[in-house]
């Protein structure tokens, strides 16, 4: 949570714009805090189960991977990063770095984190909150953000959307964007 706080309030260069659907931030923060509380309470209120080291290490790996991915996405966005859905007048459509693999690497990292954290403590309730509350809210946010980006960038976003998957990266490193190839597997 400390990392998230620093990410949100760290003094860095920003370009302000028009905030769209601000309620999504508050819903996501609420679900995130609820998930953390459930993980914490579940982990420290039970005596009967031991936490498997392999499951915990898997959760730690996913958590660290999510931090690296999210920080790469933030660094690539530079001054366009915002905790809100925020569209600027001179906004650029970023398609480099992690945005060349998926349109929403920041949210992909959040999904990985939301899966990893409950695994660290083997917190079943935290996992359920993650899957059935946090993740659906994240999907809503992705849908809304892409709607606003499509309105802003029109055909450029439509082309980008046709070439780059939304959240889950393609299994192939070969870029076959824009044409069908039976050997190329894509997760959209």
Describe the protein in words.
This protein is mainly alpha-helical and 188 residues long. It has a single domain, classed as Four Helix Bundle (Hemerythrin (Met), subunit A), CATH 1.20.120. It has a two-stranded antiparallel sheet. α2 packs parallel to α4, α2 packs antiparallel against α5 and α4 packs antiparallel against α5. The longest helix has 30 residues. It is elongated and about 55 Å long. The C terminus is likely disordered.
Helices, strands, pairings?
Blueprint (H helix, E strand, L loop, with lengths): L1 H8 L8 E3 L2 H23 L7 H25 L7 E3 L17 H17 L2 H30 L1 H9 L25
Antiparallel strand pairs: 1-2
Helix pairs in contact: 2-4, 2-5, 3-4, 4-5, 5-6
Features of this protein?
2 strands; 6 helices; 188 residues; disordered C terminus; Four Helix Bundle (Hemerythrin (Met), subunit A); mainly alpha; two-stranded antiparallel sheet; elongated; single chain
Measured distance between first and last alpha carbons = 30 Å
Q: Report the count of strand segments.
A: 2
Order of helices and strands: HEHHEHHH
- Tally of DSSP helical segments: 6
What's the structural domain tally? 1
Which strand-content bin applies to the residues? under 5%
The neighbouring-strand order within the major sheet is: 1-2
Helical/strand content category: mainly alpha
Tell me, briefly, the overall form: elongated
* The first-level CATH class name: Mainly Alpha
Radius of gyration: 18 Å
The CATH architecture name reads Up-down Bundle
Main beta-sheet strand count, sense and barrel state: 2 strands, antiparallel
Percent of residues in helices comes to 55-70%
């Amino acid at each position: 949570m400390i990392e998230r706080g620093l990410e949100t309030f760290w003094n860095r260069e920003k370009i302000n714009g028009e905030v769209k659907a601000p309620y999504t931030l508050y819903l996501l923060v609420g679900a995130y805090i609820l998930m953390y509380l459930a993980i914490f309470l579940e982990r420290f209120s039970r005596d009967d189960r031991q936490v498997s080291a392999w499951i915990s290490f898997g959760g730690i790996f996913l958590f660290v991977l999510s931090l690296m991915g999210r920080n790469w996405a933030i660094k690539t966005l530079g001054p366009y990063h915002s905790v809100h859905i925020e569209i600027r007048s001179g906004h650029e459509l970023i398609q480099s770095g992690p945005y060349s693999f998926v349109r929403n690497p920041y949210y992909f990292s959040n999904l990985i984190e939301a899966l990893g954290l409950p695994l660290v403590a083997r917190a079943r309730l935290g996992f359920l909150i993650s899957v059935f509350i946090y993740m659906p809210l994240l999907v809503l946010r992705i849908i809304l953000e892409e709607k606003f980006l499509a309105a802003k960038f029109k055909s450029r976003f439509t082309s980008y959307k046709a070439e780059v998957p939304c959240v889950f990266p393609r299994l192939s490193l070969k870029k076959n964007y824009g044409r069908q190839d039976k050997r190329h597997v894509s997760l959209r």
